[in-house]
Amino acid sequence: MSATIELKDIHWLIDMVHSIDVGIVIIDKDFNVKVWNGFMENHSGFLTAHMMDKKITDVFTSIPEDWLQQKVKSVCLLKNKAFTTWEQRPYLFKFKSYRPITSNAEFMYQNVTFLPLTDIVGVVTQICMIVHDVTDVALSKQTSQKANAKLTRLSQTDTLTQLNNQGYWRERCASEFLIYKKSGRIASMILFDIDHFKIVNDTYGHTFGDEVLKGIADVIQDNSKKEDITGRFGGEEFTSLLIDTNLEGAKLIAERLRKAIEAIHFEFQGTVVKVTASFGIAQMTDSITDHEKLIEVANLGLYIAKNNGRNQIGVSEH
Question: What region holds the GGDEF domain (predicted)?
Fold first, then answer.
Protein backbone atom coordinates (compact mmCIF):
# COMPACT_ATOMS: atom_id res chain seq x y z
CA MET A 1 0.00 0.00 0.00
CA SER A 2 2.80 2.44 0.94
CA ALA A 3 4.61 1.64 -2.31
CA THR A 4 1.43 2.54 -4.26
CA ILE A 5 1.16 5.87 -2.42
CA GLU A 6 4.84 6.58 -3.07
CA LEU A 7 4.43 5.93 -6.79
CA LYS A 8 1.38 8.19 -6.88
CA ASP A 9 3.30 10.92 -5.09
CA ILE A 10 6.17 10.66 -7.59
CA HIS A 11 3.74 10.79 -10.51
CA TRP A 12 2.09 13.88 -9.04
CA LEU A 13 5.47 15.53 -8.53
CA ILE A 14 6.61 14.79 -12.09
CA ASP A 15 3.30 16.09 -13.46
CA MET A 16 3.67 19.30 -11.46
CA VAL A 17 7.26 19.88 -12.58
CA HIS A 18 6.23 19.52 -16.23
CA SER A 19 3.07 21.62 -15.92
CA ILE A 20 4.32 24.53 -13.80
CA ASP A 21 4.61 27.88 -15.60
CA VAL A 22 8.31 28.33 -14.84
CA GLY A 23 11.33 26.66 -16.35
CA ILE A 24 12.88 23.81 -14.36
CA VAL A 25 16.29 22.63 -15.50
CA ILE A 26 18.53 20.31 -13.47
CA ILE A 27 22.14 19.84 -14.49
CA ASP A 28 25.03 17.96 -12.97
CA LYS A 29 28.34 19.64 -12.19
CA ASP A 30 29.52 18.94 -15.74
CA PHE A 31 26.49 20.90 -17.07
CA ASN A 32 24.74 17.77 -18.40
CA VAL A 33 20.94 18.07 -18.38
CA LYS A 34 19.04 15.71 -16.06
CA VAL A 35 15.61 17.40 -15.96
CA TRP A 36 14.02 19.55 -18.67
CA ASN A 37 10.41 20.42 -17.92
CA GLY A 38 7.44 21.31 -20.12
CA PHE A 39 8.04 25.06 -19.89
CA MET A 40 11.53 24.58 -21.31
CA GLU A 41 10.22 22.23 -24.02
CA ASN A 42 7.54 24.70 -25.09
CA HIS A 43 9.84 27.72 -25.32
CA SER A 44 12.99 26.07 -26.65
CA GLY A 45 11.43 23.63 -29.09
CA PHE A 46 13.69 20.91 -27.66
CA LEU A 47 11.97 17.88 -26.13
CA THR A 48 13.22 16.27 -22.94
CA ALA A 49 14.42 13.26 -24.94
CA HIS A 50 16.62 15.57 -27.03
CA MET A 51 18.10 17.41 -24.02
CA MET A 52 18.76 14.54 -21.62
CA ASP A 53 22.49 14.17 -20.82
CA LYS A 54 23.39 16.91 -23.29
CA LYS A 55 25.83 19.54 -22.07
CA ILE A 56 23.68 22.65 -21.79
CA THR A 57 26.35 25.05 -23.06
CA ASP A 58 26.76 22.91 -26.19
CA VAL A 59 23.06 23.28 -27.02
CA PHE A 60 22.72 26.91 -25.86
CA THR A 61 25.99 28.40 -27.04
CA SER A 62 24.94 31.91 -25.94
CA ILE A 63 25.39 30.85 -22.28
CA PRO A 64 28.97 31.83 -21.32
CA GLU A 65 30.57 28.67 -19.95
CA ASP A 66 33.00 30.53 -17.68
CA TRP A 67 30.14 32.55 -16.20
CA LEU A 68 28.01 29.43 -15.61
CA GLN A 69 31.00 27.66 -14.06
CA GLN A 70 31.38 30.47 -11.53
CA LYS A 71 27.68 30.30 -10.65
CA VAL A 72 27.77 26.52 -10.20
CA LYS A 73 31.00 26.71 -8.17
CA SER A 74 29.51 29.33 -5.85
CA VAL A 75 26.30 27.35 -5.29
CA CYS A 76 28.22 24.11 -4.63
CA LEU A 77 30.72 25.73 -2.29
CA LEU A 78 28.25 27.73 -0.21
CA LYS A 79 25.37 25.24 -0.54
CA ASN A 80 23.13 28.24 -0.98
CA LYS A 81 20.97 29.62 -3.75
CA ALA A 82 22.21 32.20 -6.25
CA PHE A 83 20.38 34.50 -8.64
CA THR A 84 20.69 36.34 -11.90
CA THR A 85 18.17 39.01 -12.88
CA TRP A 86 17.12 40.37 -16.26
CA GLU A 87 18.85 43.65 -15.40
CA GLN A 88 22.17 41.83 -14.95
CA ARG A 89 21.63 39.52 -17.93
CA PRO A 90 18.45 39.91 -20.02
CA TYR A 91 18.13 36.14 -20.46
CA LEU A 92 19.96 32.90 -19.81
CA PHE A 93 18.08 30.95 -22.46
CA LYS A 94 17.32 32.99 -25.56
CA PHE A 95 13.63 32.25 -26.07
CA LYS A 96 11.44 34.28 -28.41
CA SER A 97 8.72 36.30 -26.76
CA TYR A 98 5.50 34.35 -27.06
CA ARG A 99 3.40 37.53 -26.90
CA PRO A 100 4.42 39.31 -30.11
CA ILE A 101 1.07 41.11 -30.46
CA THR A 102 0.79 42.48 -26.92
CA SER A 103 4.52 42.88 -26.29
CA ASN A 104 7.34 44.78 -27.97
CA ALA A 105 9.92 42.29 -26.68
CA GLU A 106 11.91 40.29 -29.21
CA PHE A 107 12.89 37.74 -26.56
CA MET A 108 11.80 36.58 -23.11
CA TYR A 109 13.38 38.47 -20.22
CA GLN A 110 14.28 36.08 -17.41
CA ASN A 111 15.16 35.94 -13.74
CA VAL A 112 16.96 32.71 -12.87
CA THR A 113 17.41 31.07 -9.45
CA PHE A 114 20.18 28.48 -8.95
CA LEU A 115 19.52 25.91 -6.21
CA PRO A 116 21.97 23.29 -4.86
CA LEU A 117 20.67 19.70 -4.85
CA THR A 118 22.46 17.37 -2.42
CA ASP A 119 22.70 13.60 -2.13
CA ILE A 120 21.91 11.65 1.06
CA VAL A 121 25.25 12.58 2.63
CA GLY A 122 24.85 16.30 1.93
CA VAL A 123 27.17 16.61 -1.07
CA VAL A 124 25.95 18.90 -3.84
CA THR A 125 25.72 16.77 -6.96
CA GLN A 126 23.29 18.73 -9.11
CA ILE A 127 22.07 22.27 -9.69
CA CYS A 128 18.45 23.22 -10.27
CA MET A 129 17.82 26.31 -12.37
CA ILE A 130 14.39 27.90 -12.04
CA VAL A 131 13.64 30.20 -14.99
CA HIS A 132 11.03 32.91 -14.45
CA ASP A 133 9.50 34.82 -17.37
CA VAL A 134 9.62 38.48 -16.29
CA THR A 135 9.08 40.05 -19.70
CA ASP A 136 6.10 42.13 -18.54
CA VAL A 137 8.03 43.46 -15.54
CA ALA A 138 11.09 44.28 -17.67
CA LEU A 139 9.09 46.06 -20.37
CA SER A 140 7.11 48.02 -17.80
CA LYS A 141 10.29 49.22 -16.10
CA GLN A 142 11.96 50.05 -19.42
CA THR A 143 8.90 52.02 -20.54
CA SER A 144 8.93 53.93 -17.26
CA GLN A 145 12.66 54.63 -17.55
CA LYS A 146 12.25 55.89 -21.12
CA ALA A 147 9.36 58.13 -20.08
CA ASN A 148 11.37 59.54 -17.17
CA ALA A 149 14.38 60.10 -19.42
CA LYS A 150 12.17 61.91 -21.93
CA LEU A 151 10.67 64.11 -19.21
CA THR A 152 14.15 64.89 -17.91
CA ARG A 153 15.32 65.78 -21.40
CA LEU A 154 12.27 67.98 -21.97
CA SER A 155 12.93 69.81 -18.72
CA GLN A 156 16.48 70.54 -19.88
CA THR A 157 15.78 71.45 -23.51
CA ASP A 158 14.63 74.61 -25.22
CA THR A 159 11.56 73.49 -27.18
CA LEU A 160 12.14 75.68 -30.23
CA THR A 161 15.86 75.19 -30.86
CA GLN A 162 16.46 71.81 -29.15
CA LEU A 163 19.51 73.30 -27.46
CA ASN A 164 19.93 73.21 -23.68
CA ASN A 165 17.67 75.73 -21.99
CA GLN A 166 19.18 78.46 -19.86
CA GLY A 167 18.52 76.75 -16.52
CA TYR A 168 20.14 73.46 -17.46
CA TRP A 169 22.98 75.21 -19.30
CA ARG A 170 23.78 77.18 -16.13
CA GLU A 171 23.83 73.94 -14.12
CA ARG A 172 26.29 72.38 -16.57
CA CYS A 173 28.38 75.53 -16.57
CA ALA A 174 28.57 75.50 -12.75
CA SER A 175 29.65 71.83 -12.80
CA GLU A 176 32.37 72.45 -15.38
CA PHE A 177 33.63 75.42 -13.36
CA LEU A 178 34.10 73.17 -10.32
CA ILE A 179 36.00 70.67 -12.49
CA TYR A 180 38.18 73.53 -13.74
CA LYS A 181 38.95 74.61 -10.16
CA LYS A 182 39.95 71.07 -9.15
CA SER A 183 41.87 69.99 -12.23
CA GLY A 184 42.86 73.18 -14.04
CA ARG A 185 41.01 72.02 -17.14
CA ILE A 186 40.80 74.73 -19.81
CA ALA A 187 37.42 76.02 -20.94
CA SER A 188 36.11 79.13 -22.65
CA MET A 189 32.70 80.65 -23.23
CA ILE A 190 31.02 82.21 -26.24
CA LEU A 191 27.95 84.39 -25.71
CA PHE A 192 26.25 85.94 -28.73
CA ASP A 193 22.99 87.35 -29.93
CA ILE A 194 21.37 88.16 -33.26
CA ASP A 195 21.79 91.78 -34.31
CA HIS A 196 18.56 93.83 -34.50
CA PHE A 197 16.40 90.75 -34.02
CA LYS A 198 13.44 92.87 -32.90
CA ILE A 199 13.35 94.44 -36.36
CA VAL A 200 13.30 90.96 -37.92
CA ASN A 201 10.31 89.98 -35.76
CA ASP A 202 8.48 93.28 -36.35
CA THR A 203 9.06 93.15 -40.11
CA TYR A 204 8.48 89.49 -40.92
CA GLY A 205 6.56 88.17 -37.91
CA HIS A 206 7.39 85.89 -35.03
CA THR A 207 6.89 82.68 -37.03
CA PHE A 208 9.68 83.75 -39.38
CA GLY A 209 11.71 84.87 -36.36
CA ASP A 210 11.41 81.37 -34.95
CA GLU A 211 12.74 79.95 -38.22
CA VAL A 212 15.76 82.25 -37.90
CA LEU A 213 16.39 81.06 -34.33
CA LYS A 214 16.19 77.41 -35.39
CA GLY A 215 18.53 78.04 -38.31
CA ILE A 216 21.12 79.61 -36.04
CA ALA A 217 20.74 76.76 -33.53
CA ASP A 218 21.61 74.37 -36.37
CA VAL A 219 24.73 76.40 -37.12
CA ILE A 220 25.79 76.11 -33.48
CA GLN A 221 25.28 72.35 -33.49
CA ASP A 222 27.20 71.95 -36.74
CA ASN A 223 30.16 73.89 -35.36
CA SER A 224 30.37 72.35 -31.88
CA LYS A 225 32.35 69.44 -30.48
CA LYS A 226 30.39 66.66 -28.80
CA GLU A 227 31.65 67.68 -25.37
CA ASP A 228 30.82 71.40 -25.79
CA ILE A 229 27.79 72.60 -23.84
CA THR A 230 25.53 74.68 -26.07
CA GLY A 231 22.39 76.51 -25.05
CA ARG A 232 19.78 79.13 -25.78
CA PHE A 233 20.49 81.79 -23.21
CA GLY A 234 17.21 83.59 -23.75
CA GLY A 235 15.34 85.33 -26.58
CA GLU A 236 17.78 85.76 -29.44
CA GLU A 237 20.84 85.07 -27.28
CA PHE A 238 22.89 81.85 -27.52
CA THR A 239 25.88 80.45 -25.71
CA SER A 240 28.44 77.69 -25.84
CA LEU A 241 30.87 76.50 -23.20
CA LEU A 242 33.89 75.21 -25.09
CA ILE A 243 35.63 72.40 -23.23
CA ASP A 244 39.44 72.14 -23.53
CA THR A 245 39.53 75.38 -25.54
CA ASN A 246 41.54 78.48 -24.66
CA LEU A 247 40.69 82.10 -25.52
CA GLU A 248 42.45 82.00 -28.90
CA GLY A 249 40.60 78.83 -29.80
CA ALA A 250 37.33 80.45 -28.74
CA LYS A 251 38.06 83.41 -31.03
CA LEU A 252 38.51 81.08 -33.99
CA ILE A 253 35.27 79.22 -33.23
CA ALA A 254 33.35 82.46 -32.68
CA GLU A 255 34.63 83.81 -36.00
CA ARG A 256 33.58 80.61 -37.74
CA LEU A 257 30.11 80.94 -36.24
CA ARG A 258 29.91 84.62 -37.17
CA LYS A 259 30.73 83.90 -40.81
CA ALA A 260 28.36 80.93 -40.96
CA ILE A 261 25.46 83.01 -39.60
CA GLU A 262 26.24 85.88 -41.97
CA ALA A 263 26.19 83.43 -44.90
CA ILE A 264 22.70 82.03 -44.17
CA HIS A 265 20.03 83.02 -46.67
CA PHE A 266 16.62 82.94 -45.00
CA GLU A 267 13.66 83.37 -47.32
CA PHE A 268 10.38 85.18 -46.65
CA GLN A 269 7.76 85.20 -49.41
CA GLY A 270 10.42 85.24 -52.11
CA THR A 271 12.59 87.80 -50.33
CA VAL A 272 16.06 86.80 -49.08
CA VAL A 273 16.65 87.88 -45.50
CA LYS A 274 20.10 87.89 -43.93
CA VAL A 275 21.09 88.36 -40.30
CA THR A 276 24.30 88.89 -38.38
CA ALA A 277 25.38 88.28 -34.78
CA SER A 278 27.64 89.89 -32.21
CA PHE A 279 29.90 87.82 -29.94
CA GLY A 280 31.53 88.05 -26.54
CA ILE A 281 34.11 85.50 -25.36
CA ALA A 282 35.85 84.70 -22.08
CA GLN A 283 38.21 82.06 -20.70
CA MET A 284 38.19 80.48 -17.25
CA THR A 285 41.08 81.91 -15.25
CA ASP A 286 42.08 82.11 -11.59
CA SER A 287 40.74 85.68 -11.45
CA ILE A 288 37.24 84.48 -12.34
CA THR A 289 35.75 83.24 -9.06
CA ASP A 290 32.65 81.38 -10.29
CA HIS A 291 30.64 80.50 -13.41
CA GLU A 292 28.41 83.57 -13.01
CA LYS A 293 31.51 85.77 -13.20
CA LEU A 294 32.53 83.93 -16.39
CA ILE A 295 29.12 84.71 -17.91
CA GLU A 296 29.50 88.33 -16.83
CA VAL A 297 32.91 88.66 -18.52
CA ALA A 298 31.60 87.10 -21.76
CA ASN A 299 28.59 89.42 -21.61
CA LEU A 300 30.90 92.45 -21.29
CA GLY A 301 32.67 91.28 -24.44
CA LEU A 302 29.28 91.07 -26.19
CA TYR A 303 28.50 94.70 -25.25
CA ILE A 304 31.89 95.75 -26.61
CA ALA A 305 31.11 94.03 -29.93
CA LYS A 306 27.75 95.79 -30.12
CA ASN A 307 29.16 99.19 -29.24
CA ASN A 308 31.86 98.80 -31.90
CA GLY A 309 29.34 98.28 -34.68
CA ARG A 310 27.99 94.68 -34.25
CA ASN A 311 28.71 91.60 -36.39
CA GLN A 312 32.05 91.12 -34.64
CA ILE A 313 33.77 89.59 -31.61
CA GLY A 314 34.39 91.49 -28.39
CA VAL A 315 36.79 90.59 -25.57
CA SER A 316 36.63 92.24 -22.15
CA GLU A 317 39.80 92.88 -20.16
CA HIS A 318 39.26 91.49 -16.67
Answer: 185-318
